Queue: 4 jobs
Job 1
Amino acid sequence: MSDVRTTARGIAWRADGPAAAPALLLLGSLGTTSDIWEPQLAGFTPHLRVIRLDTRGHGASAGPPGEYTLDDLGADAVGVLDAAGVERAAVCGVSLGGMTAMWLAAHAPERVRALVAVSTALKIGVRSTWDERIAQVRAGGTESIADGAMGRWFTAPYREANPKTVEWCRSMLAGCQTDGYIGCCAVLRDSDLHPVAPRIVAPTEVIVGVEDPVTPPDNAHDIADHISGARVLSLAASHICAVERPAEFNRAVLDFIDAH
């Protein structure tokens, strides 16, 4: 596995796959590290230079106290592309990472050659829900929300059949920096991409789990309604569909990137 590097902004990142191959930037969801993409590496790295980062306040990335903004996360991602020497990349993000990916495509279109928005929305949830989540994590840490999150991240049959994978993901969330998690909750509470989504010109694929209670299919179709030419692909999964259905997810992403 590749060595972890750090940008001037304190964002940890790594690159795998041939240095000369087309670049794919992967952006993870709230409460996960770049390790969440392990089910994708074997399928992606023969064809692509796969660049992964730990979101601000997650994993090995710096997590300053205080609230973050989507502008912050977008600038962090641009900084990783710069550090990796990548002018243009396909960008794939899940949930919070999906919002960051769409921010990139809207605000730095010259850097994004194709966009894959996964289990995400132009606006995720409502202010009161995120304020409640922030209060809960401030009081009890991310351990206090880990069990409930697994019920949203994966379908019940998957949880029953794959307890080790679910525990791996639970441990990732429970180990998340409190300040970083809260800072990113503020991003989700305050961000609404509806005004800028129509600017996006990169070819766009939206992937959604049909049983996702966090960003259900209506959210995916809302994205497609705001981005010209975007297409929606549904998987039989819940929120973290790249882990729950890795073979189908990997094929969908590779086929889309190959076509663009």
Job 2
Amino acid sequence: MKLLRIGSSGAERPAVLIGREVLDVSSSVQDYDASFWEQGGVDQLRDLPRASTTTIDLNQVDRIGPPVVRPQKIICIGLNYRDHIAEVGAETPAEPIVFMKAPNTLVGPNDDVILPPNALKVDYEVELGVVIGKRSQYLKDEEEALRAIGGWVLSNDISERGWQLDRGGQWVKGKSFETFNPLGPWLVTPDELNMETGLAMKLSVNGELRQNSTTREMLFSPSFLVWYLSQFLVLEPGDIVNTGTPAGVVLGSSRQYLRVGDVIEASIDQLGVQRLVCRGA
């Protein structure tokens, strides 16, 4: 099942995507928030009568918001793709590199990315996002971790490298500006996505392909990451884990950092496409 939220910012309504049809389910589900997952998640939607919902063609939807309501936490993993580790000349981590991102960075898949004042090093990072489906702590193993995953989503970990790397302290400073985590267009439930074969990931800027990889390049798998994080964090329903980015970012290359007017297009197989325009603050 594909879950998405439609409508203007702050007034999004929960919906389900079937083919190219968007079913507004706001009469049956309040929103895709923590209580949605706590009350059984997608099981609430499986037997929903089509006749009781409003149907819209996907092309006629004015705006798609992030597919989950603001989570308690956005947890990010650094240097988790072998090709990215190689391009920046870093050592392969023995354990996952973990940092946090402010939850209010979430925006929709086609919303503008706002470049902060005096920002000179704004970068992009196409990522596979994991949405936690149930409260999880001290999970026993990866199998139990898989059962804790509510869905998969396309994420973009926008980063200002100057604040992240040149200003001292923790990476969170370069990660938490407004609009710095476009999410969606939709969440795909685990029963619809086979992660074993790997998912193609791409990102272009102004039509130039910059990231072109696959989730098979991951160092630590999503199930391992969820298990690992649960050993020292309580993962709440609706929390997001950004699982890292593949090669092709600006950092460590001669490419141009993002500028006003740049158009970012990102995609992951089966998780949809983002189209983002950069504008000034």
Job 3
Amino acid sequence: MSGPTHRSDPRVVSAGSSVHPAIRWTFYLFVLSLPFEYPERSFPVETTTITAALFLLAVLVQPVSCFRRFPASLGWFAGFLYACLVSFVVDGGQYADEVQRLLTLYVQMLLLFWAEYNVLQDEDVFRKTPLVLAIACIARAGLQLADIATVHTKEWVGGERVSALGQNTNQSSMMMAAGLVALLGLAHTRAGGRRYPWVVTWPCVALIGLAIIQNGSRGGLAALGVGVVTFALGGSGMRTRLRHGAVGLVALGLLIWGTYSTEGMRNRLGESASTGRLAGREQVYPALWHMFLERPILGYGPQANKWVLGGRLPEQHYEKREPHNLPLEIMTSTGLVGLIPFLIGFGLVVRAAWRARRGPAGSMPLALLASTMTANMSGSWLAGPLLWFVFAYELACDRPAAAPAPVLPRRSLRSTPLTAFDASVAASSSSAQSP
């Protein structure tokens, strides 16, 4: 297939969804659950694990359709998973219980990625997915701003960080930044089949932005800023770019104003600027780089790299330290053997997002990917469902466009029957438009 390909114009009416209702609705339920992970739950299973399992069970209703297409990137990501297993075995099989749980999550994420990619081939599901994600993040932000099930953590530099449901504030910000980018797409592109009025979307944008600022996450704020800038710089045509640029300037202005109006976020940013402190990351990243240089081929093994890192930073008082950076986590756990296939698979995702810029979703897919990956530069959610959902959505944006519907000749306002000449003109017009 030569040249970039895009989805059909959403104004073209489809013949109806080809996805079974059980699959469609469990997929929407899974997307709705993404911002509602509940670490402090009383039941042993995570919310998104339950909804993901329901979706994968529903997929069995139409297994051929839901696993029909095998994206090339999936093969490379499977190669990364195989590298994890090889590294674990070669490095002595350390921390077997932890590695078993991690590899099980990776397998589930790849199955989700595969099924999501195929379900998103359906035009109706593809159009509605950004709206479902936006609604979920609006609800999550509203829960936090209403002070329901929230946790307030005092900062030693002054102010506080707020999160709901006991969620990690960095992860919460990443989730809601994705929803905010989707909202911008719904308002200023045809990502959801039509543009939604700004009087509806912009108050919701402000709602989510305020909740992200309350989180006090510098990485989340950076993820949101990168997503907004990417959206503003995208689009096809000068008029579209000017409109997106104006949207980006307004969004960034509100974001900066809200940040410096909040004591906790203002003080955390000031501390980073004056001291260079990044919650210990300024020590973690150099240590991870040295670990990679020591074992560049296979790394230290999944999970073992975190224990090694904790032992090299005794002043931080962690026996096991999270890498807080997705590339460095891969580099130290599987070395180049795992990093290379992952980067190739990720490169295919980036290519799909880049090609989608001239499609109906515009620059929103690329902005969504940029925002999510920026969050993974100060954190690592490789085994989390949002990252793989975004990967599947990006790949689904790049597909052959459907043939346009035949345009019948305009009839007069009089109620007259279609003549034989009219029928012949319509038939010739349809045949001329067919490939």
Job 4
Amino acid sequence: MGISVPIIVYTHTDMKDVWPMFFGQFKKYIGDTKVYVAVNKESDELSMYNQIVYDDSKQYTERWNEILELIQEEFFIFLHEDMILFSNPNFQLLEKYIGYVTGNLAESIKLILAGDRFEEWSVDKTLVTNEYAKFSIQPTITTKKVFKELVNNLPPMTIWKFEEAIISAGRDFMVRVGDEKKRGMYHYDSSVFPYIATAINKGKWNYSEYQTELDSLFAEYQINPFERGIV
């Protein structure tokens, strides 16, 4: 089963050792979905995807400006390569949420829950808002127009500064189905798009939060975690 909008994966060749796991899980769980891969250098390992090469010398926001110019579709899901699926997505709910974005009822829908004191959306009680509901670098359903306006209205900046600088337009939501389990201090596991958030922390495998999931994936993809290191 696939998803009706494309997925844009942002990555870098520094993360090549993560690709077998990330794309292996993608192939397993996403199925027949169009995938763009934004990367700093074209790679044979990514030849089965639509590769978009960005200028590595530019800041994160400038890179996205380049990437978005080459995306054909107006609507998409985007994420980074260390956000690795570990179970089946809920395609029915994903398509419903995509419909809210394509129907201009929402500007972005983040596929993870964070924070507390959630305010339910009157249109759909499984979508909520709080201070964390704004557009972010987590897996998100959004539009090219919304993303371009964000990167164009801010000065060139790093990924972390970009996320801090974003202000919600008031039509940004997070998914809360109701069965999410808390993971760490600030976020919950997504039951709609079950992924590791995130697998790499400060350049090392995020073993302290995702030991069970990563142990299974290390074995499946024959990865020695100590080559990159663990935290």
